[in-house]
């Protein structure tokens, strides 16, 4: 008896089969690999178009042609002075312009006024808002109010000290515009808002214009006076509260009270200058995705320092703060990494694409019952899982490698800027999660078409939802992170989240000319990658075990489902594999109820003896096997098999005959482990089918009623696969496969190397038989092996089975009496869930036949003559058929001599015309019909 094959052999067999299978799907694979390539190329193309657009002169620093050296030829010179406003951002700036330092002023309509009961009484009246003439308020406090007041008096110049004819020197300038991220161009001069100069009191004619040269343009800029109002507060917390209350909330403008600045002079005195400054940093342009704007705070510090100096040394002393200027910069090019922007969406599709592929492959094997078929030939669940998993993992990794390699090769920043080790870890974890997920989902489906549709819808929906829904939350930094994490529990979103982070890092890296994501960035609080990785690892482990559990316990994907607590079995004591000795009480209770069938009772006795250990040579022993299907939808329970006892020895072929629906298939399904018996059991080679199915499979072959074959594998590949599963190796394997192919007539003419999908029905049948016999199993079940075969192939097949039965036990179901008679040593007629008779074909014919059938055809007016003739031969004759002159009679064998019959017929011929006559022995078919009719008089054959 062969041992169950080792993990390595099973793995090897399955792996080679999968490789061949994959190789066959060349077209699909090509499409699979082309998809990311096409998407990458599309991105490259779009990127090229965008780069082309960005490289247009209007997006580059302006240039012009000037004759510099006077030789009549003009040279091309570029620079900020030749650029328009759109172009300047990219110019090299060797000498950045100087800008007067600005205060961040509240816009006139938002400046603090007396509004409600909660505001301070010394604020100006709200009526100034109508004329845009509200003063800008500065709040001060400190431990010495008289010092504070004198500092405040010195902060803003009065109208008498500022003379606009001298330009802007000495003026305290401010703007309500929002700042940019650099100060090459001060937004105060570019925006349409006026520039203000703050004075302690505005005189008449306080509005005038100046012209400001910016690049090649001269901008006309309006300059307006604004009164700077200083208000003393008793403590810094008062200031704080007032600032807080004045903050713009929603759109309710009447509640807004914006303050220019706040100063707390603390314990300052003449010898000690100690100050705290409040400033508003929200006034900066952070609408775009780029770096944030600078904060206008330096001027407010200078103001108060200057005031202190003047208190100290008198009004003629001045601490001047003329200009601010950026450091010089070289020419830059505008770059927009388009691939990083569209990347998350496209790449989510690319990577998710593997999901339906794994899913359909798994469901295909389930739909075609190939998984069960493999299991019946000894492939354990463990190896199946591990190998399939490893196999899909390998495929996914190869695919991902191609994808990243190609993307890098065409230069997509998404790949080249981010650290490859992070990318590897991310993709590796994700594909593992994805495969586990596919295993889990596959257990709930059994139809390839459905699952393919579901799979692809998932892919596209996930991409779109990610791009137009999930990304929205990712970008919204105020959205609670917890909910993002909750959404990322869906693997599609965690994939999207990770890709999004890659794209963000690549985008800014490209824009700023720095690196993309590095390991140190993982700990960034804004980087979602850390969550994503943790979620995916945990989910992978959970889903993996859940999938295995569901596969084993909940669905019947791999044959008989195990109990939901099947894994506890491993901890229980290993059950003995020897025969269970039946208890003596059981004997004699229910076994002998079918008293009228001595042969069936005889068989039951044999079983009892075998179980008691008196006769151990039986290959198969069925002990009162029963199957009851529970009642559904109000129908009563269905008794498919009502107690079947049978003992088969090695070298015996047992034929099961029976009308459709008699329970033959239920019986076979129990024997091959597809369904669990409701009660009773069977022993195959001494192993109990309830507990030791896995070992039984190693010595069992099955030829199922419907051919379970891979459409794309050839006959030879099927046999190689199953041969390997049965522990055949090297030359033994090749030889066995070759012999097997020859014996079923599939060897010649290259048939063996044609794909099974192209076989005719007969060829598939023969291949199935060959599969059931390969590896020399000791027990073989064949479910109608010769259906659909032409007579020549059928004879061929019979010879194969005859030769094969010499050293094994075969149980065969069939509807062909000829086949049963030809192949089987014993027959059992199975009707309505129980055996009606057991015996070899001759015995049965003798027992149930026991008569000849005499047929005669005459003209209809001689029918009575024929009847008399027959009555003369035997008074017990029985007419079984009569129609327009043709009659058939049953003649008991004991009462008849054949010579008498001939004589009587000769005699009759002389009296009337006999058109035809015949005498036949009973056939097996007659026996079958008789038995079936007796057992089920009403519905089977009427
Ligand atoms: C407050 O400051 C003034 C100078 O401005 C000084 O003369 C006066 O002594 C200070 N008062 C206290 C209590 O320190
Ligand atoms: C402003 O300065 C100009 C010249 O520097 C002078 O002519 C004019 O009188 C000054 N105006 C005032 C109001 O001081
Ligand atoms: C600071 O600036 C923001 C935005 O410009 C504004 O909404 C807010 O009211 C300002 N806060 C104060 C206290 O002025
Ligand atoms: C400045 O003021 C703070 C807050 O009152 C105080 O803790 C600190 O000691 C002061 N510094 C000096 C040099 O007086
Ligand atoms: C902010 O900057 C963007 C471009 O960087 C510009 O289009 C927008 O007008 C700016 N907003 C303000 C309020 O200055």
TrEMBL record:
Q: Which InterPro entries match?
A: AAA+_ATPase, ABC2_TM, ABC_transporter-like_ATP-bd, ABC_transporter-like_CS, ABCA, P-loop_NTPase
Q: Name a GO CC annotation attached to this entry.
A: membrane
Q: Where in the cell is it found?
A: Membrane
Locate the transmembrane regions by residue number. Answer: 32-50, 341-364, 384-412, 424-446, 453-473, 532-550
Please list the GO terms describing molecular function: ABC-type transporter activity; ATP binding; ATP hydrolysis activity; lipid transporter activity
Domain ABC transporter: from-to ranges: 620-857
Keywords in alphabetical order, please.
Answer: ATP-binding, Membrane, Nucleotide-binding, Transmembrane, Transmembrane helix
Keyword Iron assigned to the entry: answer is: no
Primary location group: membrane
Q: Which Pfam families match?
A: ABC2_membrane_3, ABC_tran, ABCA12_C
Classification via Gene3D superfamilies:
P-loop containing nucleotide triphosphate hydrolases
How does this protein sit in the membrane? Multi-pass membrane protein
Q: To which protein family does this belong?
A: Belongs to the ABC transporter superfamily. ABCA family. CPR flippase (TC 3.A.1.211) subfamily.
Instruction: Please state what the protein is called.
Output: ABC transporter domain-containing protein
């Amino acid at each position: 008896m062969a041992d169950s094959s080792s993990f390595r052999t099973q793995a090897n067999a399955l792996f080679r089969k999968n490789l061949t299978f994959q190789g066959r799907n060349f077209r699909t694979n090509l499409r699979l690999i082309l998809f990311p390539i096409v998407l990458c190329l599309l991105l490259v193309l779009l990127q090229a178009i965008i780069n082309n657009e960005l490289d247009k002169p209007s997006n580059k620093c302006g240039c012009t042609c000037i004759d510099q050296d006077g030789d009549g030829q003009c040279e091309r010179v570029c620079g900020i002075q030749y650029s328009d406003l759109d172009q300047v951002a990219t110019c090299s700036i060797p000498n950045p312009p100087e800008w007067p330092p600005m205060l961040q002023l509240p816009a006139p309509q938002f400046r603090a006024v007396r509004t409600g009961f909660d505001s301070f009484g010394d604020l100006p009246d709200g009526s100034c808002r109508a004329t845009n003439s509200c003063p800008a308020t500065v709040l001060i406090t400190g431990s010495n109010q008289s010092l504070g007041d004198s500092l405040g008096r010195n902060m803003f110049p009065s109208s008498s000290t500022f003379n606009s004819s001298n330009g802007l020197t000495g003026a305290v300038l401010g703007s309500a515009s929002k700042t940019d991220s650099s100060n090459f161009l001060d937004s105060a001069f570019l925006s349409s808002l006026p520039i203000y100069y703050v004075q302690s009191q505005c005189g008449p004619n306080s509005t005038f214009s100046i012209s400001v040269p910016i690049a090649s343009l001269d901008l006309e800029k309006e300059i307006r006076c604004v009164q700077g109002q200083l208000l003393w507060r008793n403590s810094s917390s008062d200031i704080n509260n007032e600032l807080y209350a004045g903050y713009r909330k929603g759109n309710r403008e009447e509640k807004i009270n914006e303050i220019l600045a706040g100063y707390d002079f603390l314990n300052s005195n003449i010898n000690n200058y100690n100050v705290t400054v409040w400033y508003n940093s929200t006034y900066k342009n952070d609408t775009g995705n780029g770096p944030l704007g600078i904060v206008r705070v330096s001027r407010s510090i200078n103001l108060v320092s200057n005031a202190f100096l003047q208190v100290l040394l008198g009004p003629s002393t001045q601490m001047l703060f003329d200009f601010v200027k950026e450091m010089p910069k070289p020419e830059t090019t505008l770059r927009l990494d388009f691939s990083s922007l569209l990347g998350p969406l496209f790449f989510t599709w690319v990577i998710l694409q593997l999901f339906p592929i794994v899913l359909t492959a798994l469901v295909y094997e389930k739909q075609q019952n190939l998984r069960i078929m493999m299991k019946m030939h000894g492939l354990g669940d463990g190896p199946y899982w591990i190998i399939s998993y490893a196999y899909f993992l390998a495929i996914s990794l190869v695919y991902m490698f191609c994808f990243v390699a190609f993307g890098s090769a065409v230069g997509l920043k998404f790949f080249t800027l981010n650290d490859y080790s992070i990318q590897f870890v991310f993709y590796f974890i994700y594909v593992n999660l994805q495969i586990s997920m596919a295993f889990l989902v596959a257990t709930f489906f059994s139809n390839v078409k459905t699952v393919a549709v579901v799979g692809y819808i998932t892919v596209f929906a996930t991409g779109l939802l990610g791009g137009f829904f999930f990304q929205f939350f990712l970008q919204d930094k105020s959205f609670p992170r917890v909910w993002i994490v909750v959404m990322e529990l869906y693997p599609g979103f965690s994939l999207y989240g990770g890709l999004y982070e890659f794209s963000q890092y690549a985008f800014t890296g490209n824009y700023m000319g720095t690196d993309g994501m590095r390991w140190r960035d993982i700990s960034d609080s804004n980087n979602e990658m850390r969550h994503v990785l943790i979620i995916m690892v945990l989910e992978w482990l959970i889903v993996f075990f859940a999938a295995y559990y569901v596969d084993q316990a909940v669905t019947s994907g791999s044959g008989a489902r195990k109990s939901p607590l099947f894994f506890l079995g491993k901890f229980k004591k290993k059950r003995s594999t020897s025969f269970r000795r039946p208890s003596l009480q059981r004997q004699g209770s229910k076994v002998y109820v079918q008293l009228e069938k001595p042969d069936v009772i005889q068989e039951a006795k044999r079983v009892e003896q075998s179980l008691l250990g008196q006769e151990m040579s039986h290959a198969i022993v069925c002990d009162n096997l029963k199957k009851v299907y529970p009642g559904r939808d109000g129908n009563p329970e269905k008794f498919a098999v009502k107690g079947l006892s049978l003992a088969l020895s090695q070298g015996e072929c047992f034929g099961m005959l029976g009308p459709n629906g008699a329970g033959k298939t239920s019986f076979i399904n129990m024997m091959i482990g597809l369904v669990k018996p409701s009660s009773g059991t069977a022993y195959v080679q001494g192993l109990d089918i309830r507990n030791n199915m896995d070992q039984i499979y190693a010595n069992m072959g099955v030829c199922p009623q419907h051919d379970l074959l891979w459409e794309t594998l050839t006959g030879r590949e099927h046999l190689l696969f199953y041969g390997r599963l049965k522990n055949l190796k090297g030359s033994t394997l090749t030889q066995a496969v070759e012999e097997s192919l020859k014996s079923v007539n599939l060897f010649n003419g290259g048939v063996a190397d044609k794909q099974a999908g192209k076989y005719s029905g007969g060829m598939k049948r023969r291949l199935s038989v060959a599969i059931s016999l390969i590896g020399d199993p000791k027990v073989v079940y064949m479910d109608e092996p010769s259906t659909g075969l032409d007579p020549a192939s059928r004879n061929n097949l019979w010879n194969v089975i005859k030769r094969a039965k010499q050293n094994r036990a075969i149980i065969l179901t069939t509807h062909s009496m000829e086949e049963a008679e030809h192949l089987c040593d014993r027959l059992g007629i199975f009707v309505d869930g129980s055996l009606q008779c057991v015996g070899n074909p001759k015995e049965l014919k003798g027992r149930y036949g026991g008569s000849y059938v005499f047929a005669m055809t005459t003209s209809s007016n001689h029918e009575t003559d024929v009847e008399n003739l027959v009555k003369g031969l035997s008074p017990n004759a029985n007419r079984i058929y009569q129609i327009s002159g043709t009659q058939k009679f049953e003649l008991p064998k004991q009462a008849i001599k054949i010579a008498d019959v001939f004589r009587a017929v000769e005699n009759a011929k002389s009296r009337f015309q006999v058109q035809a006559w015949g005498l036949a022995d009973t056939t097996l078919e007659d026996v079958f019909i008789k038995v079936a009719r007796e057992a089920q008089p009403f519905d089977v054959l009427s």
